[in-house]
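input
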Amino acid sequence: MKKLFSMVLVLLSFALFTNAENSEGNDQKSLFERLGGTEGITKIVDDVVEAHMNNPAISARFSPYGKQPERLAVIKKHTIEFFSMGSGAQIAYTGKDMPTTHAGMNISAAEYMCVVDDIMMVLDKHKIDEESKKDVLAILWSLKGMIMAK
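output
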């Protein structure tokens, strides 16, 4: 359970990291800025965690963290760091890499799609622009093979 939760948060962060690299040289704002900077990313991470805990299809993997506030705080901290760094902020990420996080998790296609759906729902809730949502979705989809059934 702990690994899936970490996977989701790192996955979202990695998606933003890849998008930020692809946006360099463009006249548009960085993805970090488009997502509201540290404050916006923190709110997105909080809402994604809540969405996963309330999603009946994946809540069993996430809800135990509600009873582990110290562990949950560390996971959120790492996610915010990675999300921020990957989207254009000058910040260090101190969490685990994706292959280590996903090893042995055996995530199903259905679970993966629930995670993606929750992320997209939260981006809608925060009124993230369509271009940014498309960028995040494309990246999430491209990572599917690295995440599922590992």
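quick obs: Confidence is low (pLDDT under 50) at residues 4-11, 15-26.
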